[in-house]
Specification:
The protein is 41% helix and 12% strand. By secondary structure, the chain is α/β, with parallel strands linked by helices. The strands form two sheets. A seven-stranded mixed sheet has the order 1-7-6-5-4-2-3, sandwiched between helices. A three-stranded antiparallel sheet has the order 8-9-10. The protein is globular and about 60 Å long. Mean pLDDT is 94; it is low at 1-6.
């Protein structure tokens, strides 16, 4: 590794998000002295608030079908450890899916995504992978997908998702739908979100991380909605047993803040809407800057990330001793001064020259700068954001030069 290059951890840490809302900080502070532990799986008030959150999105939910935990990692681990069989993931997918499958003792198989989007598998490739696993004596059990995909910043069209859900149902797969970024769509009126549970509620577990969306990024909290069927009850009971063994309960102050955030009061809803506008504006600018250098990426639609493919620049990159995503990650992280994880961290082939780009480091290092970008009518006119975008464009332009 080159001298001065920032080494990325093997399991990338969460990025710094937007400043804490005063209303959330107030609720955290007021309950900081509470010593009564939060019940494993979440207290009644928190689970009731989660039901209201899902009801506003058209999903029927009962508190008895909900589990809460300090982050989605604990919930996914509990799910994968609660039943045998293999796990199917998309390629690319979130960095934490595959390690948790291994930790739960499950084999994980990656399925390529369609050209239109990330986060969901190509339905024909999914069927082919399932049949191959069975031919080899395996028992495919779970499919983990993300319609509003954090890795690629895309939203899967309903027609593709419908084919995937039909394929999953035909093969008896339980779908785990990570819907964390469904409400951070850059254009809520132009982009339709349809989740798997709306198509087949009896086979879908909905997983929603609150951190970075309704709560600050550094406050780990997540909720999961299980099917109300007998099979769903069994799965939830087993998952709760794993959470109990891990002592994976929410800290009481975070639980109180999460309960409040899930009711979506005006301040929380306004912050989420403002974040979606900010991320969309800056992500589109990043997309334009990188496209000018010959970089391919699906147009960003949700969240703060987009997934860039530099395969068209392979010859120019090879002249700079960059031949895979590991070397590309090292170079971009060094010259940009913040982590730029390569595609190998998301399950992609290291020989593919892909990286995930984030708008968050472009918003400034301090809370004041990030609030200025958040409140600006046009964040691209912010000196901090403008300078960061210019630097990004220059870096990719230099890499593309022959």
């Amino acid at each position: 590794m080159r001298k001065g290059s920032p080494a990325l951890p093997a399991f990338p840490a969460p990025e710094r998000g937007l400043p804490v809302l005063p209303e959330l900080a107030d609720r955290l502070t007021r309950t900081a002295s509470r010593t009564t532990p939060e019940p494993l799986g979440g207290g009644a008030a928190l689970r009731e608030a989660a039901c209201g959150y899902w009801a506003r999105r058209g999903l029927s939910a009962r508190p008895a079908d909900v589990l809460a935990a300090p982050g989605p990692q604990a919930l996914l681990l509990a799910l994968l450890a609660s039943a045998g069989g293999e796990v199917l993931l998309t390629r690319p997918c979130a960095t934490w899916y595959a390690p948790l499958a291994r930790l739960a003792g499950r084999l994980a198989y990656h399925v390529p995504v369609p050209a239109e989007c990330g986060g969901v598998p190509d339905p024909f490739a999914l069927l082919e992978t399932v049949r191959r696993i069975r031919t080899e004596g395996g028992r495919p059990r779970f499919l983990v997908l993300s319609v509003a995909d954090d890795t690629t910043g895309t939203i899967a069209p309903p027609e593709i998702l419908h084919e995937v859900c039909e394929a999953a149902a035909a093969e008896g797969l339980t779908v785990i739908s990570d819907e964390t970024w469904r409400d951070i769509r850059h254009d809520a009126h132009a982009t339709v979100f349809v989740g798997p549970a709306e198509m087949d509620h009896e086979r879908v577990v909905v997983l929603t991380e609150l951190s970075g969306v309704l709560l600050p990024a550094a406050w780990p909290a997540a909720v999961a909605l299980f099917p109300s069927s007998p099979a769903g009850l069994t799965l939830r009971t087993r998952a709760q047993a794993v959470l109990t063994a891990l002592r994976a309960e929410l800290p009481p102050p975070v639980a109180v803040a999460a309960e409040y955030a899930l009711t979506e009061p005006a301040a929380v809803a306004a912050r989420a809407a403002a974040a979606a506008r900010l991320y969309g504006t800056v992500a589109r600018a990043v997309h334009r800057r990188t496209a000018e250098a010959g970089v391919l990426a699906r147009p960003p639609q949700t969240g703060p990330h987009l997934y860039a493919d530099l395969g068209e620049l392979r010859e120019a990159l090879a002249a700079r001793a960059i031949t895979d995503s590991v070397e590309l990650e090292e170079r971009l992280s060094t010259v940009l001064g913040h982590p730029v994880p390569g595609g190998h961290r998301f399950g992609d082939d290291p020989d593919a020259l892909r990286v995930r780009l984030s708008v968050l480091p472009l918003l400034g290092a301090g809370d004041d700068q990030r609030l200025q970008a958040l409140d600006a009518a046009d964040p691209l006119r912010s000196p901090v954001v403008g300078t960061a975008l210019a630097t990004l464009g220059a870096v990719f332009g230099e890499l593309a030069a022959t």
